[in-house]
Amino acid sequence: MTTHAVYDEIRSGIDRLNDFKMSTRDLSEPRKRIAHADRVHFIGCGSSYWTGVIGQYASFQRGIDATAYAASEYLFAGPPITEETVVVAYSQSGETSETVTAARRAKEKGAFVIGITNTDDSSLGSVADVVLVTPAGTEKAVLATKTVDAALMLTFSLLESKYSEYTPSELQRMCRNVVEQDFQTAVAVLAEAKTLYTLGQGIEYGLAGEAATKFGEGALLHTTALPTPEISHGPIANAAGEPALVIATQESEASLTSEVVSKLCDAGVTTIVLRRPTNDYGGDISIELPSRSPDHPIVPLKILQSLTYKTAVKKGYNPDDPPELSKHIEWSALG
Ligand SMILES: N[C@@H]1[C@@H](O)[C@H](O)[C@@H](COP(=O)(O)O)O[C@@H]1O
């Protein structure tokens, strides 16, 4: 029996994958704007920022010049914005101050603003030129899970990414299968950890960031997300005895993964590798995607959400009640 809202939402996100096409009805104008833009800026806070990082890499795959920014950086120390800039602003609530203010300022400078949110009626909605409402609905938990699923699906659809070619039912079957696994060996290690490095390249660096956010919020781990080889350029000096989670599920994985994993093991880092059954990179613990799993980021994302949840429960934490967190933040200085 499920006792936590976050676990319900992890599963409900999978059910909703079927609905996301409802939100793609009016993608033609935003798609046209992206096609003619000089550059695309993805902005957001927390999980919404990391969704933008995934959007950035999905853009690169389509040859689009894109950059993801934490909305506060974009607002206070951001790049040049012109009339040829398209801004994709993510906010579950549609009310996070940095995101709404950054979107408003970008629009004042002539940018075309696409808002991606869960609600029809929001401050972001009133600022954006086009609002794409995800089918996620209201997230019951503080930890965003089904929101990230839905925002990703919408982003892939918006970008006409190769990931938008999968049918939702195909993805749903695989995701249901993976979230029910117990990941016992990995959870035992993660539940004993004080710190966690999450590593990935490209789209999977975005997943690593989202995983770091979730493990921090839900399992109260001190987390750092890095592009995989970056751990060798400093952090490895002080990582022995703690785990690293390497996300390496893409079909065309860069060849440095095996070397980095081997370096981590030699340095005494407990290395957990999330991978396809056909790609063995070594490491202490493997979490394998099911065979014939689609090459789609939603599958590892659901595993990472489930791992976070199971780690939190194993530690005796209530992942529905993370200390110091609220679902979104409104700063009085930006009111
Ligand atoms: N703790 C929450 C995060 O979980 C959330 O991702 C972020 C952005 O919220 P929103 O997506 O509503 O803009 O706000 C807070 O920091």
From TrEMBL:
<dbReference type="InterPro" id="IPR001347">
    <property type="entry name" value="SIS_dom"/>
</dbReference>
<feature type="domain" description="SIS">
    <location>
        <begin position="30"/>
        <end position="168"/>
    </location>
</feature>
<dbReference type="InterPro" id="IPR046348">
    <property type="entry name" value="SIS_dom_sf"/>
</dbReference>
<protein>
    <recommendedName>
        <fullName>SIS domain-containing protein</fullName>
    </recommendedName>
</protein>
<dbReference type="GO" id="GO:0006047">
    <property type="term" value="P:UDP-N-acetylglucosamine metabolic process"/>
</dbReference>
<dbReference type="Pfam" id="PF01380">
    <property type="entry name" value="SIS"/>
</dbReference>
<dbReference type="GO" id="GO:0097367">
    <property type="term" value="F:carbohydrate derivative binding"/>
</dbReference>
<feature type="domain" description="SIS">
    <location>
        <begin position="186"/>
        <end position="322"/>
    </location>
</feature>
<dbReference type="GO" id="GO:0004360">
    <property type="term" value="F:glutamine-fructose-6-phosphate transaminase (isomerizing) activity"/>
</dbReference>
<dbReference type="GO" id="GO:0006487">
    <property type="term" value="P:protein N-linked glycosylation"/>
</dbReference>
<dbReference type="InterPro" id="IPR035490">
    <property type="entry name" value="GlmS/FrlB_SIS"/>
</dbReference>
<keyword id="KW-0677">Repeat</keyword>
<dbReference type="GO" id="GO:0006002">
    <property type="term" value="P:fructose 6-phosphate metabolic process"/>
</dbReference>
<dbReference type="InterPro" id="IPR035466">
    <property type="entry name" value="GlmS/AgaS_SIS"/>
</dbReference>
